[in-house]
Input
Amino acid sequence: MNTRFPSVLEDHAGSIGHYGDPQGKYALRACLSDYLRHSRGVVCLPEQIVIGSGISYSMGILAKLFRDRRRIGFEEPGFAPVREQWIQNGFEVIPISVNDRGLSLAELNESGADIVYRG
Output
């Protein structure tokens, strides 16, 4: 019996094995942007979103992107492995408490944090 590769492989042979957008597929980032706006009230563009493969890898990317800002407000309690990633990358982690309305904005404003992480 003579079988051929499915036409899908033939039709896309030029793109198989090539790297995609280093920030992640644009269509996915556009969907995430819409989701964040509607579900979390976060207004951002797809160009501001970076897709990573796992939390450690993603935190490493963010640490490089924010290397000129060294003080990070971090929700307390927070996810300890992420806290450790920031510390290992030389950031000063400033704990910010969480209440029934979310991250304490008063504490965040008084903290002197340059950026904030909320998991």
Notes: The radius of gyration is 20 Å. Helices lie at 7-11, 26-40, 55-65, 80-88, 105-111.
